[in-house]
Structure formats: structure tokens, C-alpha cells
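re the bet — no i am not wrong, look at it urself. input seq straight from the record:
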Amino acid sequence: MRQDQLSQKIDWLSVLVFGALVIAGWLNIYAAEYDPAVNQSLFDFSTSAGKQLIWILTSIAIAFTIFFFDYKFFDSFAYIIYGVVMATLLFILIGGKEVAGSKSWVGIGSFGLQPSEFAKFATALALAKYLDGVNRKLTDLNTLGIAFAIIVLPMALTILQGDTGTALVFAALVVPMFREGMPPLLLVIGLSIFAVFILTLLVSQTVLLAGIAVITLLALGLNARTPKRLVYIIAGAIVVTSVVRSVDFVLTDVLQPHQQKRVLSLVNPNIDPLGVGWNVTQSKIAIGSGGFVGKGFLEGTQTKFDFVPEQTTDFIFCTIGEEHGWIGSVLMLALFATLLLRLVHLAERQKSTFSRLFGYGVVGIIFFHFTVNIAMTIGLFPVIGIPLPFFSYGGSSLWAFTILLFSFLKLDANRMQVLQRL
């Protein structure tokens, strides 16, 4: 396809929303570090805003480069990209750079890159490639097992690096699997396990185990009329009991000490009032103080006095809430909603299973980041340290999301050629 024809088929609405989010993020990064006594410029490359501008310009270059790729590249090299990225994650465990307790960075001069951010793109590609194969049915246990293995491998490697927050994002790749026919019962089971985990933090394990025993006996008495039901009830009881018993192991052996406090502070905000509890409390104060219209650009007092830690990264939403109020927050949410709904529309119009699966993978990853980041900022979710897409400061994050989005837009622009190939 010639470049003039390609430009007509690019989904420019998605590109415009991407641009609006990136520019708004850049301005809010500047506001989050703004010091009226210094009055540094947006283009001062010694500041986070100046450095982010470099990342933005390089991201635009990456986006343009992707449009020059042959659309078959993503399908043809999916497994190779996945393998290279997995090998990089393994290397990081040995020679990686440790930042904030996570050994998940590669040092490049004065900059650092986080390969686990790019692993999301690689895993979405590999999963789409695998499920696009002949006779792949998500009702088949063998297909399900391999699909989950593709997701679990980078998740496990990321956990070993000490970055549990990023590892959780890979769970978002169940979204394309459900779109392609994975049984809804698995979602119910997953959500139930999560609910039991949270409940175990709130209630004594002894009480929970006693309750499980009583419910199991009642279920056996009322519903165990066939051997199949008997097996299901007993298996369910074993799974739930295992989850309850595993909570201590997860908290003490999987999570880092600061992550343990983040989880526990969700159910007991007073457990660390000057640590993790302080972060979330100040975050909510900053957002609430913005009121309906906000205090105005560069007028955030919580920001000026550095009350909220990590405000350019994990807590960037605080700046929006404080300086632009309810109106600014709603506009930002509307931009994300527009992008996500548009991407769902684009995914549904794909002519190839591979492109559709990858599109839903992009939707799942962006949606997970967006909802969890906002939820942890307002105290509805533990602070797990994942950025707000296109908004938060950081080159690895911005590059990774740019590659995710524009790879899919490239596939969408060539969807008719994909149809002809098939």
C-alpha cells in the first residue's frame, strides 16, 4: 500500500486522542514539579518535563516508523519478538539495574529502560499468533494451558525481578481470550479467588476455614446427587481453602516489604499513616481540594509543597484533580473512554483473527493500567506502582504504549490486505 493510501486508512481519531493525552500528560508533569521560585521552562531538559519531551519526540518517531513496516511483520515475527524479550527478562535477573527495590531496569548511559514494559507488547503479539493457529479452541484444555503459559512466563519473570505491580498487568490479556470464546466460568472463578484473598485479609483464617467447612457440608448434603457434582464441590472447597492458606505465603514470600504494606493499608489505612497511608491520604486530599473547576494551572498547593510522593509518575492524576478539578478529571476520563471504545470498534472490524486478538490485547492492557492507576490514586486499590498510560513520566512506559497502539493502528489500516491474504 502506498503511503498516501495508508494515510487515508489510518484511524486519525485514535491518533488525535493519543496526541491529546500525551500533551496533557506533559503539561501535568511540568505542573507537578513546578517551583515558582525557580520558574523553570517547559523546555528545560534538566527537569522531568524536559526529559519527557525527549521521550515524546522519540515516541512520535517510533509511531511514524511503525507505519513504514510491512503489516505482515507483526504476525511473522511475533514468536521471535516474544523470545527475544523473554531472554532479556532473564538477563535482567542477573545483570539488571535495581531501582526502588525492583531489579527490572537496563541502564543506558544516564537513562534506563524497563524491558517488562515491552514484554506486554511481545506477549500480546505471541498470544494473538498462537490463538490464530489452526484448530485453536479456547474450550480445549490444551489450548487454554498453552495460552496461559504464554501469559504466565513473563508474569513470573517480572515477579522474580521484584516488580509485582507490572506483573499483574499481564492478567489483562485474558480479555482477548474471553472475546474468542474462553468459558465465562473461568472469569467467575478468578474473581472469586481474588474476593477470597481480600476477605482473608479482613477476617481470621480460622473463621474462614470453619465457614468453608460448613458451606461444603451443606453443599454436599443438598447438591451432591451425582459423582460429578460431588467432585466439583470437593474440588471447589480445596481450591478456596488453598487460597486462604496461601495468603500468608504471598504476603511474606512473594511481595516485597513495601508491597506488603500497600496491600495491608488497603484494608487498614492506619497501619502505616506516615508511609503508604500518607501517600494515599495526601493523594485524596489533593484531588478533593480541586473542587469543581480546580485551583488553576500551576496553582496546586499540595503539588508546590511536595505533599504527594511520586506525583509525576504513579500519582499524576492528583495534579489533574487539584489544578483542574472535577471538570478536568472528567475530561481526562472522557479521553481515555473515547480511546478505549474506539479501539474496541477497530478490533471488531478486523478481518483477521490475529489482528482482532491483538487489538483486544491492547484494549485490555490500557484499560488495566488506566483503571488500576486511578483506583490506587483515590484509595480503592493498593498502590502497586503502575503508570497512567501516555500521562505518567517515563520513557519505557510511553515507548511501550506507543508501540502497542500504533502497531494495532498499522494492522487496522491494512485490514483489507489481511483479508486478501487469507
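see?? The mean pLDDT is 84. told u. also Residues 3-189+256-421 form one domain. so pay up
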